[in-house]
Design brief:
The complex is a heterodimer of chains A (about 425) and B (about 300). Chain A is an alpha/beta fold and about 425 residues long. Chain A has 2 domains: about 5-50 and about 380-420, Urease, subunit C, domain 1 (Roll); about 55-365, TIM Barrel (Alpha-Beta Barrel). Chain A has helices at about 70-80, 100-115, 135-140, 155-170, 180-185, 195-200, 205-220, 235-245, 255-260, 280-295, 310, 330-340, 345-350, 355-360; strands at about 5-15, 20-25, 30, 40-45, 50, 55-60, 85-90, 115-120, 145, 175, 190, 200-205, 225-230, 250-255, 300, 375-385, 405-415, 415-420. The mean pLDDT of chain A is about 100. In chain B, helix 1 crosses helix 5, helix 5 packs across helix 6 and helix 5 (about 135-150) crosses helix 11 (about 285-305). In chain B, the strands form 2 sheets. A 5-stranded parallel sheet of chain B has the order 1-5-4-2-3, with helices on both faces. Chain B has a 5-stranded parallel sheet with strand order 8-7-6-9-10. With about 300 residues, chain B is α/β, with parallel strands linked by helices. Chain B has 2 domains: about 5-135 and about 290-305, Aspartate/ornithine carbamoyltransferase (Rossmann fold, 3-Layer(aba) Sandwich); about 135-285, 3-Layer(aba) Sandwich (Rossmann fold), CATH 3.40.50.1370. The longest helix of chain B is centred in the C-terminal third of the chain and has 20 residues, at about 285-305. The radius of gyration of chain B is 19 Å and the shape is globular. The chains are: A alpha/beta (about 425), B alpha/beta (about 300). Chains A and B meet through helix 6 of A and helix 4 of B.
């Protein structure tokens, strides 16, 4: 494997509190002292930023089941182009990843065809159906890093309580999609001014908040980690803020789209603005930005949800929920939060690196010599227009096509190998 | 003024001047229906498809008659007989219709925005005949036409809409049309069916019938649906009628010259009593007559903008 020497980069290594211009070496797939390299390829990164590789806690790879929309190969290429060196694969494939065989298949396929590391996530319940507990211990043995019924939400509180308790014995964090089903039933967008004006069935913010409150109570009672996926309302955020202040083991992620778009976008009836949780009000969006700034939200996660053009080119009510996000996450967040003056770049990098690592219980997210060389290089000065036809993803369902952004992913290194270079 | 839209999707999209222009044009077409020969050659040689993906009787009949009186060639399609049941997408279905060189598609659909979605992909004109709870522009235009004809103006009038506002495309279209023409709009009914969010666009929200009708120039009543969507929003049509139905006692509280309107079909004894429906303030059947003139005007204007 070729040795690499990155020179003159602004190195941001949040875990070790480093933000300085310097050189980073890579040999045999791990970080190495530059002075120990023999014949490296020298890459000048003047003006660029180098950090530990980004981690996305929330990706739908669609394999098996919907490989017309995405595959492990194309999804991980998209991840690499977005600066992600590791992604957590949600288990709501068809069939669902609720058994060790499915996890083994994912691991083998990802090792064989994946451009980046794929962390498997297993279902909490059989089939993700919210009725019977999945074989959580066996899933752990097969290599899952977390549990989730994402896309659905366990409505039976007694079952959820047992799942959290049982998961604790295997040290597996819960990643929960929070949605009370009767309050969200039939809804296709956020319930509020715009659902009322457009005549759509709404999904009340209360549907999310009730389950966030439940999860906080369970995390407190059981003393185990529950991570709130794609948190989206002002009240949910306030609940998490209070819980974290009290030391309860609850965390939350924000998606780039909830940080940048609101329900008003739906007035043009473009199904690329339809996702679950839905785009919320401007007040909710502002609360989410504040939560990223004050540390209530510790991770940015994309909820990358590929769908074919055919599936999305239908009436709004009939379109599936979800948009892709891997290749637009960093520039969108950089533009909104760093260029927008909300947080500094190291804080944003933390939401892409140490934040998600901590939720998964990983403690190796830094650039110390000897660490696996998973690296991301971004150019904070670059400005460009997002063009969906340039995506590595198989899917094109993005609401951000044509949007001008700042901050560009330049290079992604996984295990010492350059997997993406602009 | 010149008309330059190939589609009529929602009154939200139109300016006040454009709305007035349609109403002025409709006045001319109203005269056609009063002649001995009730037909003009305005759309001769044009083909109109009435594509109803949601059942409708009165709107479909009104459009069909309007098209006949304009001498258009007509094809009627309903969801039950279309390919949608065979798994074809809506977009493919309408592209197939367009491939037959039709000029206009009049469409009703249960999803908000369905017509806006297909209009983006079609060169032929699209007229919205109702899209879910979102919009029903020709209904609102005929209501505006009726008000203007009876009152001589719309600006400054107080118009109260009562009923299931939440699920009503008629309410949403009327609200935009009335606001653009300068009326004061109040929506009234039980709070489960009359969301407060309408206040954000300058509409008054009221949950007391007497207050809502007291100084209204126009009271527009909406049908209370017995169907699935209103289950759980109010206890019974009996209780609805008691608190929000219009009877002759309520009429006594109203201005003597107030108009009572209803888009039909009416539920006698629920939104209003038979007495009120047939009483001197009611203009319900005139609305139906005017609907024909308004739809002729819309079809005529829109067809003139479809490029061939």
């Amino acid at each position: 494997m070729k040795e690499l020497l990155f020179r003159n980069a602004r190195v941001i290594d949040v875990a070790r509190n480093i933000d300085a211009v310097g050189d980073i070496g890579v040999a045999d797939g791990v970080i190495a002292e530059p002075s120990h390299l023999r014949d490296p390829e020298v890459i000048d990164l003047s003006g660029k930023v180098l950090s530990p590789g980004f981690i996305d806690l929330h990706v739908h790879l669609r394999q098996p089941g919907n490989t017309d929309a995405e595959t492990i190969a194309t999804g991980t290429l998209a991840a690499a182009a977005g600066g992600f060196t590791a992604i957590v694969a949600m288990p709501n494939t068809k069939p669902a990843a609720d058994n060790p065989g499915a996890i083994e298949l994912l691991r083998r396929t990802a090792a064989d065809q994946g451009a980046v590391r794929v962390f498997p996530c297993g279902c909490m319940t059989k089939g993700g159906e919210g009725k019977e507990m999945a074989g959580i211990g066996s899933l752990k043995s097969a290599g899952v890093v977390a549990l989730s019924d994402d896309g659905r939400c366990i409505q039976d509180h007694a079952l959820m309580r047992h799942v959290v308790e049982y998961a604790r014995s295997f040290r597996l964090p819960i990643l929960d999609h929070c949605e009370e089903s009767t309050l969200a039933a039939g809804g296709v967008m956020h319930e509020g001014k715009w659902s009322v004006l457009l005549g759509f069935n709404g999904m009340a913010g209360t549907a999310e908040e009730l389950i966030v409150a439940r999860d906080i109570m369970l995390a407190r009672e059981i003393g185990w980690k529950i991570h709130i996926q794609h948190i989206s309302t002002r009240e949910s955020i306030e609940l998490v803020r209070i819980a974290r202040r009290r030391g309860i083991l609850v965390s939350a992620e924000a998606t780039p789209h909830h940080l940048t778009l609101t329900d008003e976008c739906i007035k043009k009836f473009d199904t690329n603005f339809k996702m679950n949780p839905p785009l919320r009000s401007e007040s909710d969006r502002q609360a989410l930005i504040a939560a990223v700034a004050d540390g209530t939200v510790t991770a940015i996660a994309t909820d990358h949800a590929p769908h074919t053009e055919t599936a999305k080119q239908v009436e709004f009510d009939h379109a599936p929920f979800g948009i892709i996000g891997l290749e637009t996450a960093f520039p969108l967040c950089f533009t909104e939060l760093v260029a927008g003056g909300v947080i500094a770049l190291p804080q944003l990098i933390a939401k892409f690196t140490t934040g998600p690592a901590e939720i998964l219980g990983l403690h190796d997210c830094d650039l110390a010599p000897g660490r696996r060389a998973d690296l991301t290089v971004v150019d904070p000065a670059a400005e460009y227009v997002i063009d969906r036809n340039e995506f590595r993803s198989k899917a094109r369902n993005t609401p951000f096509d044509g949007r001008r952004v700042k901050g560009r992913v330049e290079m992604t290194v996984v295990g010492g190998r350059i997997v993406y270079r602009r | 003024m010149e008309w330059n839209r190939k589609d009529l999707l929602s009154l939200y999209d139109l300016s006040g001047a454009e709305i007035e222009f349609i109403l002025d044009t409709a006045e001319e077409f109203k005269k056609v229906s009063q002649r001995r020969v009730k037909k003009v050659p305005a759309l001769r040689g044009k083909t109109v498809v009435n594509f109803f993906v949601e059942p409708s009787t009165r709107t479909r009949v009104s459009f069909e008659l309007a098209e006949q009186r304009l001498s258009a060639d007509i094809i009627n399609m309903q969801a039950q007989t279309s390919s949608l049941l065979k798994g074809e997408t809506l977009l493919d279905t309408v592209r197939n219709i367009e491939a037959l060189q039709v000029d206009l598609v009049v469409m009703r659909h249960s999803t908000p925005g369905a017509q806006a979605f297909i209009a983006k992909h079609l060169k032929c004109g699209v007229v919205n005949a109702g899209d879910g709870a979102h919009s029903h522009p020709t209904q609102a235009l005929l209501d505006l036409f009726t008000i203007r004809e009876k009152k001589g103006r719309i600006a400054g009038l107080k118009v109260t809409i009562i009923g299931d506002i939440l699920h009503s495309r008629v309410a949403r279209s009327n609200i935009w049309g009335l606001l653009k023409l300068g009326a004061e709009v109040t929506v009234a009914g039980p709070s489960t069916l009359v969301p407060r969010e309408f206040e954000s666009i300058g509409v008054k929200v009221c949950h007391d019938l007497k207050t809502a009708v007291a100084d209204a120039d126009v009271v527009n009543l909406l049908r209370i649906q017995h169907e699935r969507q209103t289950i759980g929003f109010f206890p019974s049509t009996g209780e609805y009628a008691r608190f929000f139905g219009i009877n002759s006692d309520t009429v006594k509280l109203m201005r003597p010259d107030a108009l009572i309107m209803h888009p039909g079909p009416i539920n006698r004894g629920v939104e209003l009593t038979g007495e009120v429906a047939d009483g001197p303030n009611s203009v319900i059947l005139e609305q139906v007559t005017n609907g024909l003139a308004v739809r002729m005007a819309v079809l005529f204007l829109v067809a003139g903008c479809v490029k061939k």
